[in-house]
Amino acid sequence: MPETIPADAFAAAADGRPRLARAAPLVVTVLAAAALWVAPLVLDTFAVNVLTRSMIYAVLAVTVDLLWGFAGILTFGQAAFFGVGAYATAMLLTAQGGAPHWMAAAILLAVAAPVLLGLAVGWLSFYHRSTALYASVISLVVPIVVTQGIYSGGERTGSSSGLVGFDVLPLEIEGFFRLAAFLLVAVTLAAWILVRSDAGRMLVALRDNEARCAYLGLNPRRLQIGLTAALAGVAGLAGFVFANASGVVAPENAGFLFGTELVIWVALGGRGTLIGPVLGTIAIDYLAANLSGDLPFLWQLLLGTAFVAIIILLPGGLAELARRAWGALPRGQRPAFAPRLRAEPSHAAERTEAPLLTVRGLAKSYGSLTVLENIDVTIRAGELVSLVGPNGAGKTTLMRCLSDGTEPFRGAIAVGGVSTTGLTPNRIVALGVGRKFQVASVFESLSVADCLRLARASRAGLSPLARAETLALPQAVLDILRMTGLDAVLAEPARLLSHGQKQALELAMVVALEPRLILLDEPTAGLTKAERTTIGTVLKGLTADLGIAVVLVEHDLDFVREISSRIVVLHQGRLVLDGTVDEVVGSELVRTIYAGGGHD
Where is the ABC transporter domain (predicted)? Predict the structure, then answer.
């Protein structure tokens, strides 16, 4: 049976969140729903009409905030998905009428069409090594293409005049207000639950460090495409409600300008907060509707001035005011969450005579510059092989080729007999390979516990509904946490850790993958002597006790001598020596190489 670690063994493991904080979203949701239900009884017709539209726009703002504020994907394309949903509704109801079964079909079409478009956009936007800028450029193009499609649709789309006069849901103005309010409350609550859950931490992880996600066995491309498609469907549903509530759809509803306005509203409200973009969108759209009548030539100037002022004075948007007030609370009054730690049995790697890692004839060039040439290495389970050599020898390039099969190289690399050529990092992780980078690669915005939970996501999954009270980790990971003091700071953001603690956290994340082979690039760089000793003890335990193979790039020859079972020497991209510690350390060739040095 897995052993539960006692609470007093980990000082920060207790969940410090007040019960009131846990119930707050439900309380706010009930109060907001009740207020919105009675609002049409006290508001005039103009206000009800404008606020109905504003709340529909706020639904779109939530989707933009999830993409931009949490996942780090700046998008202008939500307007296109909204317009596709609205036009799909209007075109079907114009052609078939508003019978209940056609209304149901309109809902399905308004969601399905944007989802399919979202899948296509996601496929074009996200691929291995694509940049966030590229995805944003694609999102700029999509509204333009959709708008041009509407213009060229003739009578089917109404061209530049749009569509009007189609059948709509049999609701009064108050009914459409409440329908929009229900949709807004439901979408906002669902988004709130998601971002507060364990799965929601993955969105922030994508924003912080997409590469580390891949090297934890996750598939960033699949996550980004899935998120784009799902939120396109939500935007399409908002388009359905808009088409029914307004009774008219126009090309502007799918246009680039509207997509840009959504981004501005989210920025003004405070991206990454959900509530800020909702309140900001409603307030700005309602204010604009009033000012456009009273100050038809001045209101946009006033709005632009307010935008510039807020961006300069409050870069986090209006929600930053609330965040600052929250941050002013004494630490004990703010909710903090750290799960209880639970040990899972560690599975020792199978020790066989068959090579775990085989490298044959590996060569790598950048143009006319040859970085690696004819590298042959074989590594078996339980070996701790140190890769040494002067700067510029090609050590880090070799590690990159071992962990990313999409790197253009010649020769062959196999893990457990499986060729890695063409495999992305997450697929190589699935073969049992973990990689630690030279500069600690963690999720700066997430807590220590969240970083560790994401490291287990490929094995244990993540709940989209809640945060687990316990965190099950292999005993080897718990040992690392205890030896480095990370067990006492589970609730702290990773960005607040010291350099040595970040190095230890990344190593713990890699070990949490339960790999057969670990690639370490200078794990002791910048560490104190005590920290280096701790890392050495951990590595020897992983190889001796669990049979994990370790490939270590290191410049500290004293450290290498203490922990290695073999040493491989690279010089000018060539493997010049592969032998035992005594053979390599006593080699005249090695002394000559290090005396001559090298440069990156």
Answer: 357-597
- Give how far Cα 593 sits from Cα of 249, 265, 391, 393, Å: 73, 60, 11, 10
Q: CB count, 10 Å around CB of 333? A: 10
Task: Check if the beta carbon of residue 238 is closer than 8 Å to that of residue 56.
Answer: yes
Determine the Cα–Cα distance for residues 243 and 163; give it in Å rounded to an integer: 9
Binned at pLDDT 50, 70 and 90, residue 583 comes out as: confident
Which residue spans within 177-293 are E strands per DSSP? 248-249
What CA–CA distance (Å, rounded) separates 273 from 264?
14
Q: Does domain 357-596 have CATH number 3.30.420.40?
A: no
Average pLDDT over residues 49-65: 95
Residue 453 pLDDT exceeds 90: yes
Q: Which helix (H) or strand (E) holds 358?
A: strand 357-366
Calculate the alpha carbon distances from 308 to 58, 271, 281, 285, 328 in Å. 21, 16, 16, 17, 26
For residue 410, the cross-strand partners are 363
Of the candidates 131, 209, 198, the one whose C-alpha atom is nearest the C-alpha of residue 445 is 209
Torsion angles phi and psi, residue 91, rounded to 5: -65, -40
Q: Which stretches of 367-494 are assigned E, i.e. beta strand?
A: 369-379, 384-388, 410-415, 418-419, 433-436, 470-474
Task: Reduce the DSSP state of residue 331 to 3 states and report it.
Answer: helix
Q: What is the mean pLDDT of residues 466-484?
A: 87
101 against 290, higher pLDDT: 101
Q: What is the pLDDT of residue 150?
A: 92
Average pLDDT of the chain, as a whole number: 85
Which residue bears the tokens 């690639």? Answer: 519
Confirm if 539 and 499 have CB atoms less than 8 A apart.
Answer: no
Q: What does the block give as tokens for 20?
A: 């009131």
Q: Is 488 helix (H, G, I), strand (E, B) or coil?
A: helix
Q: Round the CA-based radius of gyration of the chain to a whole number and report it.
A: 28
Specify the higher pLDDT residue, 337 or 457.
Answer: 457
CA 322/CA 275 separation, integer angstroms: 11
| 321/279 Cα distance (integer angstroms) | 13
Q: CB burial class (10 A; 0-12, 13-18, 19+) of residue 340?
A: buried
**Cα separation of 195 and 202, whole Å?**
9
pLDDT, tens digit, 9 for 90 and up, residues 153-207? 888 888 888 899 899 999 999 999 999 999 999 999 999 999 988 898 999 999 9
Parts of the chain belonging to CATH 3.40.50.300: 357-596
Residue type, 445: S
Which residues in 495-504 are b (16+ Cβ under 10 Å) and which e? Answer: eebeebbbbb
Closest CA to 212 of 408, 535, 494: 494
Q: Measured between alpha carbons, how far is 426 from 222 in angstroms, rounded to an integer?
A: 11
Total residue length of the chain = 600
Closest CA to 440 of 202, 131, 212, 203: 212
